[in-house]
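Dear colleague,

Following up on Tuesday's group meeting, I ran the structure prediction for the two-component complex that the binding team flagged. I've pasted the input sequences exactly as they went in, so you can double-check that nothing got truncated or mislabelled along the way. The structure tokens for the whole assembly follow below. Feel free to forward this to whoever is handling the docking comparison.

Inputs:
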Amino acid sequence: MSAATAPVYVRRFDAFDRVLHALLMVSFLGLAATGLPLVFSDEAWARRIASLLGSFEVAGWLHRVSASLLIIVFLLHLGRIGKRLIVKKDWGVLWGPRSMVPQPRDAADLWKHVRWFVGRGPRPEFERYTYWEKFDYWAVFWGMGIIGFSGLLLWFPVFFARFVPGWLFNVALLVHGEEALLAVGFIFTLHFFNGHLRPEKFPMDPVIFTGRVTVDELHHERPGEYARNVAEGSLQSIATDPPPDWLTRLGVVVGGIAVAIGLIIVGLILYAVLRR
Amino acid sequence: MTIGPRTWILLLALVACASTPAFAQRGGKAAKGPDNDTCLACHGDPTAKNDAGRVIGFDGDKFKASVHGTLGLACVDCHVDLKNTTDFPHEAKLKPVNCATCHEAAVASYSSSIHAAARRQNHGSVAATCVDCHSTHEIRSSKDPESRTYPLNLPQTCARCHGDPNIIAQGHIRIGNVAELYKDSIHGRAVSKSGLLVAANCTSCHGSHDIRQRTDPASKVFRANIPATCGGCHEGIKTMYDSGAHGSALAAGSTKAPVCADCHTAHQIQRADVTSWRLDVIRECGTCHADKIKTYRDTFHGQVTSLGFVRVATCSDCHGAHAVFPKSDPRSSVSNGHLLETCRTCHPTATAGFAEYDPHADKTNLARNPVLYYAAIFMKWLLIGVFGFFGLHTALWLPRSYAARRAARQQETPKR
């Protein structure tokens, strides 16, 4: 491959997925900011946020708007997967390197990764999606099911009470809050660390905003994917132009704000939990 | 004590005598003391001073308009030591006036009060005597709007001492500036802003002459007597309270049963629909019902009120305020027979299934909330599992990631 034709940038996420992720961020932050004050209602900071929002009706309205947005994002994603499966007959969605489905390779990668952590082996040759990214993905899936369904129960209690026993609302309230703590805690610490804050990426990996990585980065971060593309001769097909500066900058600013808000919320949660 | 017909005749005769100026003047004439004009010649000018420079004058017209003045009492009826004086000016130091000469019952009543007790215990005490509340030469009937003891003026009269920081400190009055507390209460506003004669003023609750400490079982504000005192005006509420669990417990001699002032406070009573009060009273219920407030706070109702909003149910919305009954009592608003209709006051289309929701669910109580119990355990271990696993994962990754970053930098440096 000559230097003149070598692609400097390759595409990792297309515009659709980037927009979905941006909407997911907005709705997730909105849900966290309007929901967590209820979980920590005895904390002064929770009262401060609640009074900033004006009233619990306003907070509840924002929470439901955010929830609706998140449900739309979820349905759009499902629709897209469905289209790839049913219309395009792209079975790679279900298995293989371009699938989010956990596979034996992921267990092997986890084992190798841990060995690398403790200096007992080389870094695993990660493919397009790593095991921790798949965990993030399925955590959101699981969370959508649990939080989404319990949230709908709590949103329309009188309607659902015609079909389900009353104690289910007690369970719904508990799991809605606990699962929210799990989701918020996970995204604002582990997802942020894995994606952005770990020293190799610090302070921010703009790929989810720009959708592009350099070939060097692909080679280093996803050697499996790089090797597969080289072997299949498909590296050219994913080549793209460099991200415009404004997009990179926007990504860093938006991502930075989201990370900052997230870390503040984690700080408030830790403060509340440790004080109990 | 029952009053027999003979006593009535005697009383009527006394009143008839007392109402005629002749009765009073007769006393004066018999002693041949100075008449009022003689006294007022010197004392009728409010600016008059004696040789020592002390003000000795007062407004003679005000005395004439006073209840004593209109009855035609002579100065010497009160200042009895001048009854036989003919040589003026008289000596400077007079005996204190003894109101009991006429007002025997009132003074007897006063002598059992905290004011009198304070004076007996401490001779330097500034605790109120007759004149502090009634004034001296200007005393008017408590029905007279000009009177210090007229219902609309009374709070200010008490505030002369109970709103004065110096007197409060001097008298070691524990409650502090109670006049300030009362002023913004629903009763205080009804008096000062709405001019309601029927609104409770100080004496409505404390009595007038025989004001006693609240630790005194004879006091109108002694714990067990408070419902009766408040019930003097709030009769309907008292009937409900008496029928409910709290009133019954009090009647049975419980010292822990809440009385009116526990929830409503004594002097800062607010309208029952004021947000701050609605929120405070939840905490008040929680001081006894600690387990119930804990589970309440775990639910949406409790969380929203904890954040400071009251559009959702507080204790009294479900349980009632004054006629509170245990759930087992069919009269209870949360009894099986009434629960759904209680839910429907806020959730009008609620169904029987809706009312099965447990507003005091306890995730640690296997018998009461079995599914919730296991759901809580599952969620707890899910959180511990995820954060434990990935926490360790991150802790191991961090130093490796840092080393990788340094290695990458060192590789880049020679190129530059």
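Residues 271-356 of chain B form one domain.

Cheers,
M.
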